[in-house]
Amino acid sequence: QEMLDEFAYLDEETAREVVIDNPRKIGTMIEEVLPIPDGTYPPVIEGSDEEIREMVADRAKELFGQPLPDIVEKRIKKELDSIIGNGYSVLYLIAQKLVYHSMEDGYLVGSRGSVGSSFVATLCGITEVNPLAPHYRCPSCKHSEFFNSTEVGVGPDLKDANCPHCGTKLDKDGFDIPFETFLGFEGDKEPDIDLNFSGENQAEAHRYTEVLFGKGKVFRAGTISTIAEKTAFGFVKNYYDEKDIKATRAELERVISCCAGVKKTTGQHPGGIMVVPTYKDIYDFCPVQRPADDTESDTVTTHFAYESISGRLLKLDILGHDDPTMLKMLKDFTDIDPVGIPLDDEKTMSLFTSTKALDFTDNDFESPLGVCGIPEFGTSFVREMLLDTKPSAFSDLIRISGLSHGTDVWLNNAQDLIRDKKATIKEAICTRDDIMIYLIYAGLEAKTSFTIMEAVRKGKGLKPEWEEDMRKNKVPEWYIDSCKKIKYMFPKAHAAAYVTMAFRIAWYKVYYPLAYYATYFSVRASEFDAQLISQGKGLVVQRMNQIKELGTKVSNKEKSLLTVLEIAHEMMCRGYSFKNVDVYESHFSQFRIVGNALLPPLNALEGIGDKAAQRIFEEAQIRPYMSREDLQNRTKISKSVIETLEKQGCLNQLPASNQIAFF
User: Fold this and answer.
1) CA atoms of 596 and 147, how far apart (whole Å)
2) CA 80 from centroid of its chain's CA atoms
3) Of 12, 26, 91, 443, most Cβ neighbours within 10 A?
4) What's the CATH code of the domain at 655?
5) Model confidence pTM above 0.85
6) What CATH number did the domain enclosing 457 receive?
7) Where are the strands (E) in 78-128, listed by range?
8) How confident is the model over 97-148, as pLDDT tens digits?
């Protein structure tokens, strides 16, 4: 009516035509435009279906011979029907090529999420996790024998045995993980293959995606960050203080809630890559951007947050991780391939319950466990879990990993059950897959077991009819109560992949201590303080005690330093020591093994950055320094760096200048 009033100078019929009829006519003439197109647009690789089939068939034959065991053949058929039937073979093939490329460069790739639930992914080499039931497998005559995981745990827990047909030592494998946890019960859920590449090799993996798909078809996944609640609190409080405005607590909270969540800036996902198919253009989906301070950069990011276009374009998660980097360095130090490390080694397993395998020459070390510096198990939270659960098998470690990553799975739940002796670590619910497997073995239908697992892992609890069904099948009350408390659960495949990597690193710690410590300090110890640690165990322990006394006032930097000091102390208690940094012998960033000691790198001295350390190292390789003046002139390092080197005694052999006094 307001619009009609505006056109009152026209007669009524004409005004109605201008205000109502004509806009409607124009509206019908305009085609529907979606800012982001509906549908899914995956990349196309010709022959991907057949290539995956052949790859799977060849590897299965290599492992199990012909004909395949019934359990293997059925699993492969079930998975391939789902993967190829829903058009997911391209994603599998891309992941396989990325992993193979990284392996060619000498870096293992760890799997994340539930991809280890797919046996096809195992056969393609995408993941090391074998989701079949625990089994023996003969590498010679291909004989195999499968077991119930509720009775034997996982493959590495099986006792050593020889083949009953040819006498060859049997391989042990299988983690018993249902395929449904990856692609859903109907096998049609879109797969999400997340991979952990070495941080050193991540950029190369990103570059290789461009080789696979072509220039202009691969983009970094964009993000949009928002103002956090704590930041909003600071903004609002400072504003009211500066303006000297008195506001009630309720008013402050109202304004803070309005500010929190406001879009702040664009960024990029740490490992996300968006792939545009050849038959589409990125601008069909979103604009792109380069860094504001480098408009010529090769890094091009989607301007929209990746969540708004995921499901339309393929997103690859190529994440950087320290474990593959450590294993590559450990292999370089020892010439032992981590893939061949036995996952049932008793001395390595003992680290999770005692320090006996570390062979201390000095029993001054406080921790009763040998897991300091072991990924997944070195934190104080997980150490407490280890003390409570006393793991004795590889399957126990997987369960502990699941417990440590879940929400309301351990605290006020499994921890109480184990302490009250109502359940053991082998019986408690630890990963989401445990629920489905246990309920199927208890007698519930597979579909019902899957539905219950999905509800529990998302924190939705149990429906009355499910509880009734569970009780009919004699599921204990403590198990039902435990399901009701859970808010989030970790996938077993993810836990198995993490624990496999961690166990290998722990093996090197037992059998190649100096290689382990050199690798740990090179890769993970950014807070290593060479000035302090090179002064010996007494000062290390003194500094550790000072940090512990700070209690809740301890800073994040001091927490990181405490971890480094604890591992340095452990190394010293094993009879090893640290040398002083040396201008000629020290590497710029990596620890070196010298006899029974470690030689810290140049950047381990506080105040010497990576670039300065690298320049000092590289110039020293060309020719010796004539003097401190020569060192500074050739490396262009600052006076403060020279002072740091002098303080550490690294320049004692060098005169101040190149001049020679004759008188």
Assistant:
1) 46
2) 27
3) 91
4) 1.10.150.870
5) yes
6) 1.10.150.700
7) 110-111
8) 999 999 999 999 998 888 999 999 999 999 999 999 999 999 999 999 999 9
